[in-house]
């Protein structure tokens, strides 16, 4: 469809006025009205009148009171309300049903969470804790690690704040004498 065709298919205020003046009376049908308009069929003319141009249509959102009446009357009479179109009624009912379903699901989720929390609290209060393992006589002691003697001595001195004693060295040779093949020499 070219851009010119799109513009010609759009309804203008003038075309709406022509349709309004062509409002069906006893002898006028939607087919005759469509013939007087270019590129429109009878169904398009009727839909435009019913959904947009009819001055008895109240545009805007439904009020709370209208929603309650709509729901009550919809059950009895179906989708017919003089000042609202079928599309408006269907959309409002669909929206209301989805909101109600969502609210019901949220309420159900909240109730199930509350029931789970209450059940858990009851279990805790009832003392249904898992049984403890049997006691062993005598109670087990953790294994003890025994440090070697040098490490224990070092730790003892660290606790008191002194330096550990130097490790015992081999005793010095007597008076600096070094034995050489059976002879004693004095190196001092």
From TrEMBL:
Subcellular location: Nucleus
Comp. bias intervals (Basic and acidic residues): 105-120
InterPro entries: Homeodomain-like_sf, Myb_dom, MYB_TF, SANT/Myb
Domain Myb-like stretches: 30-53
PROSITE patterns for this protein: HTH_MYB, MYB_LIKE
Gene3D superfamilies, per the entry: Homeodomain-like (1.10.10.60)
Keywords assigned: Nucleus
CDD domains the UniProt entry points to: SANT (cd00167)
Xref: PANTHER family: MYB DOMAIN PROTEIN 110, MYB PROTEIN-RELATED
Protein name: Myb proto-oncogene protein, plant
Organism: Salvia splendens
